[in-house]
Amino acid sequence: MPHSTTSNITIHPIQPPKGSTYDFGAELRGADLENLTDADAEIIKRALYEHQVILFKNQHALTPKAQYEVTRLFDPAATGYGHGKTLDAKRSILHPDLKTIPHQPQVQVIGNGAVAEFEGLKDITLKHPHHKTFHKEAISEEDDRENTRFYRWHIDAALYDLEPPKATSLLAVKVPKTQYQNLRYDDGTGDELKVPRGSTAFVSSYTMYDLLSEEDKEFARTTKVQYAPHPYIWMSPAKSRSDGLGLISEGLELSPCQLPPIDESKIKVLPMCWRNPLTNQLALQIHPSAVQKLILADGNVIDDLKQVREIVHRMQRPGIAPELVYPIDWEEGDFAIFHNRGVLHTVTGSFLPEEVRIFRQCNMAASEPVLGPEV
Ligand SMILES: [Fe+2]
Q1: CA 155 / ligand 1 centre spacing (Å)
Q2: CA spacing 20 to 30 A to 72: which of 120, 148, 299, 314?
Q3: Residue 262 above 80 pLDDT?
Q4: In angstroms, what is the span from residue 168 Cα to ligand 1's centroid?
Q5: pLDDT single digits (tens) 200-237
């Protein structure tokens, strides 16, 4: 990396459209991502922790290697894929057919449709997740083209053994541009939101924390979240709420004897609030579908799954109100990096099998644990 103290990068905060009030996201202009200087790297790192989602336009030529290197800026000691090796890929709810780029295995290909050749992968078929495979109640067939849901609000993290990645990057390679869809919450509130079809939606977990009552803030700062072992296999038979923010409790989760062997030392107990390493702001950062127990300040444990989920949903739901959601309107060549420890994100939309969409994604399990609420 050239030791230059100058940078041409300028930062342009995203202006939310009328009616929206989210206060994160920025476009970074003037970066040569294949040849970053030290000063560029410093600006990009600060920008991520200040703006949570940073967007570089016109990165059509970005190589998988450069994508990996830029993503690694935030954690140079990080190594393998953020979700780890899947022990039981067939039963996990995460991309059962995740495609890895042969010459840059930290970068995966996601999207939709049949692709004859891409970055050394041949004859692959990609599938954009549809909410009907995960939500308890789906939008009717006839309304499905015009309407969509938040598929699954989440953090990119294995939540077993490995530490949550600091950043995830997404490059939009091929994007079918079509009409907007109406995103319905279908949770009895009447909430809805117009989103570009196939948008990735983000919310700030800092705002989610700030919206809590003082009592809930205290609870959030002092409570720990225990995640289920092998969470994506554990939750595989369960179904989601219609707002994509956590699961419905019907006793469908797998029991320990139905899971791969459990190493108790690998079970993740994480703070409910994660501190921003630059600003010290607190994020209410909980993976709503993977949570299993809450460990309270006095050591008591709430292990009634229904109750755990009700508490988490009550705390998180205000933070996904329509005006707080930043839905990226993807254009080909867009390269976004998001602060995986400061936002929640979700897929939206649906595509027909013949609609081809290609994205490259990169994240790595972190080399350091998340920062707790105490400075
Ligand atoms: Fe994700």
Answers
A1: 6
A2: 120
A3: yes
A4: 8
A5: 999 999 999 999 999 999 999 999 999 999 999 999 99
Q: Is the pLDDT of residue 128 over 90?
A: yes
pLDDT at 83: 66
Assigned domain for 218 exists:
yes
**Within-domain flag for 79:** yes
CA of 238 to the centre of ligand 1 (A): 19
Pairing mode, strands 104-118 and 99-101: antiparallel
Q: How far is the CA of 150 from the centre of ligand 1 (A)?
A: 12
Contacts of 227 (CB under 8 A, 6+ apart): 159, 160, 267, 268, 269, 270, 287, 290, 291, 292
Q: Look at residues 104, 105, 100 and name the one whose alpha carbon lies nearest to residue 126.
A: 100
Residue numbers of the domain that contains 268? 10-363
pLDDT value at residue 91:
75
Mean residue pLDDT across the chain:
94
Distance 292 CA to ligand 1 centre (A): 20
Q: What is the number of domains present in the chain? A: 1
Decide if 373 is inside a domain: no
* 3-class secondary structure per residue, the chain: CCCCCCCCCEEEECCCCCCCCCCCCEEEECCCCCCCCHHHHHHHHHHHHHHCEEEECCCCCCCHHHHHHHHHCCCCCCCCECCCCCCCCCCCCCCCCCEEECCEEEEEEEEEEEEEEECCEEEEEECCCCHHHCECCCCCHHHCCCEECECCCECCCCCECCECCCEEEEEEEECCCCCEEEEECCCCCCCEEEEECCCEEEEEHHHHHHCCCHHHHHHHHHCEEEECCCHHHHCCCCCECCCCCCECCCCCCCCHHHCCCCCHHHECEEECEEECCCCCCEEECCCCCCEEEEECCCCCEECCHHHHHHHHHHHHHHHHCHHHCEECCCCCCCEEEEECCCEEEEEECCCCCCCCEEEEEEEECECCCCCCCCC
**Residues above pLDDT 70, as percent of the chain:** 95
- For ligand 1, the distance from its centroid to the CA atom of residue 145, given in whole angstroms, is 23
Question: For position 97, which CATH number holds?
Answer: 3.60.130.10
Find the 157 Cα to ligand 1 centroid distance in Å: 8
